[in-house]
Fold DUF1272 domain-containing protein.
Amino acid sequence: MLELRPNCELCDKDLPPESTDACICTYECTFCKDCVDTVLKDVCPNCGGGFVPRPIRPKTERRDGVSLSHQPPSTKRVHSPHSKAEIEDFVSQVHSIPAEKR
């Protein structure tokens, strides 16, 4: 089950569960689309993978036990452990390699 982290790990922008601006990598690292496009260039600074849009968890229970009310989003804010300089250096080394070949 996805955590649905509440914020961009880089700029700390709020990313509520219904946000279409949230992007995740395979490890659920969560960043806003603006940071993914402009700073990270589709490179997760934690694992080196690429990003996809985070799915939207339904607000309304249309199947028994399946909705935000039953599986609420995380409230724990996560921040990148890497400095801006470390991220920029890592991204510059990796971004030219397509995500499926990293």
User: Anything to note?
Assistant: Residues 56 and 84 are 29 Å apart (CA to CA). The first strand starts at residue 22 and ends at 24. The chain has one domain: 1-70+78-96. The domain at 1-70+78-96 is CATH 3.30.40 (Herpes Virus-1).
